[in-house]
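so the lab meeting is tmrw and i was supposed to have these ready like two days ago... anyway. pasting both below. for each one the top line is the aa sequence and the line under it is the structure tokens. i havent really looked at them closely yet so no promises
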Amino acid sequence: MRFVFKTAYDQDIDLARHNGQRFWYGLLLLAALAAPWVLPEYWLAQLTFIYIYATVGVGLMLLAGFTGQFSIGHAAFMGVGAYAEAYLTALGWPFPLAMATAVALSGAVGVVVGLPALRVKGLYLGIATLSFGFIVEEVLARWESVTGGNAGRSVVAPAIGEWKISGSENFYLLCLVCVTLSTLLVLNLLRSPTGRAFVAMRDSEISAQSMGITLSIYKSMSFAISAALAGLGGALYAHKMQFISPEQFSIIQSIDLLLMVVVGGLGSVHGAFLGAAFLIGMPQLISAAKDILPPAIGQAAGLQGVVYGAILIAFVMLEPMGMYGRWLKIRTWLQLYPFYRRGMFKRQKTFQKSDRLK
């Protein structure tokens, strides 16, 4: 195993723990940059969708995984960003200005939605965000002069003056830049006092208050940043699809986003990317399996929902740390082999909050 002996505080807050991580992350970035010239157009499109959902997932991971706030209406923030981007670009706004406005508008809506989080939490906060998702979906369906209603709205290609970002390769690179900057933003935020305050609130709100953390400010800030990143992902999603409608941002989409971070691994930025890959790749695997399965199963309605539900239950019961947690265990096992301890990965006994105070 690799042991890092830290001699300065800068080492503790560094983005990479050691030179090995710098090498592998640099190699991964080079592979991502080379993808437009290596991969076929279909797989490049799938990778673009992974980047878009990872952008949203990083924001939701900040809210759910690092702040401990529960949201079942995150697709509504995507819808706000997508429709704002579609409306402003149709008016002729430059692409960067339209996207910045869409992100800012989504962040402002996130602050409004975060206000109930100051008084409720847990299941009740989930119900509040769920209600917000229904409200936004209804507004998108009824405000026909802006959104086009249930008929949907076309989205023009992103452009800066006469220069248009056309072609799958150019748009792929745009999504890569956006997801990279979003990830660096969240990672640097988590290293700051603000990020440490988020984690303190997640672990214990009472302890956080005793240390002087104002819950109302930091909860609203967490919702705003998470909603802004969801709005950024929604704007990219609108340009990628080139057509948006209210049902694309329904409660089903919100559940998919929540499933993405849970399966990927709550409390880990890596989990957002693994969850996005799962969300995009699983329908492809299910479609491929339909040709192998018996017709009574493969052609049954709702097969995808059954598979998703079974996977979610399996992860919640058997691997609460998600795909990234499982990878950490495999990596540790490989590093220690053959000297690993049989009960090393046995789950620790959990206690109720009242038991911790004894």
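ok protien two:
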Amino acid sequence: MSFSAVILAGSRGGAVDPVAVAEGVPHKALIPVDGRTMLERVADAVRAAGARTVAVSANDPAVVALTERLSLRVLPPAAGPSDSVATALADLGTPLLVTTADHALLEPEWITSFLHDVPAGADIAVLLAERARIEAAMRDTRRTYLRFADGAWSGCNLFYLATSDAARAIGLWRAVEADRKRPWRIVRRFGVGTLLRYLTGRLTLADAVARLGRTADVRAAAVAARDGLAAVDVDKLSDLADVRAIIANRR
């Protein structure tokens, strides 16, 4: 399967990430994990999965310099992830894989499995992992979960924009991004009936994502991750410690 990919590595409003500060680097993407920066690890995984073009959405000078050394395309980031994706979509076209520079555990197999499992006809798809699968892969991890009738799910920082129609979902993506910690506000956009189904535990993840897509006039799909570790990224120092331990155990 031929596709392009963008790795999000922008800085929000010039804020310094506390994990980067603790590690003594100017940006989280530059944190070393087992001899390679997180950005290098993600880029290697995306390339190994078959991406024909890989771009990095970045504005930090050190991240831009590393991107160029890795022979990757540099794209200017926007105010937030959703707008940065819009920039990448306009530049790279579809199909487009989207991930983040702090996805240090990313494996090529996770990407190929995700793309294989995207339903035919979907314009946009998102990978999520079910809580039991995450906790089976890594005990005692703390993640943000979206709770639906078919389980509690956590995002895996992997998105697939399969067709040009996916561009219609960017505005909705921006709104979801703002409410990502308050899922009931996301569901409220579907109307009172759907909100009640969610609050009473009768709304499934697949139904929620499909309804979300219909509000943007796109065919949206949720894909279940085969490996719970796909939901693990580096948001805090404890995540970094976990990631390093997992990679050391693999080695």
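from a quick look at the 2nd one: The beta strands are 3-8, 32-33, 36-37, 51-57, 73-75, 96-100, 124-130, 146-148, 151-161, 220-224. The chain has a mean pLDDT of 89. will dig more after coffe
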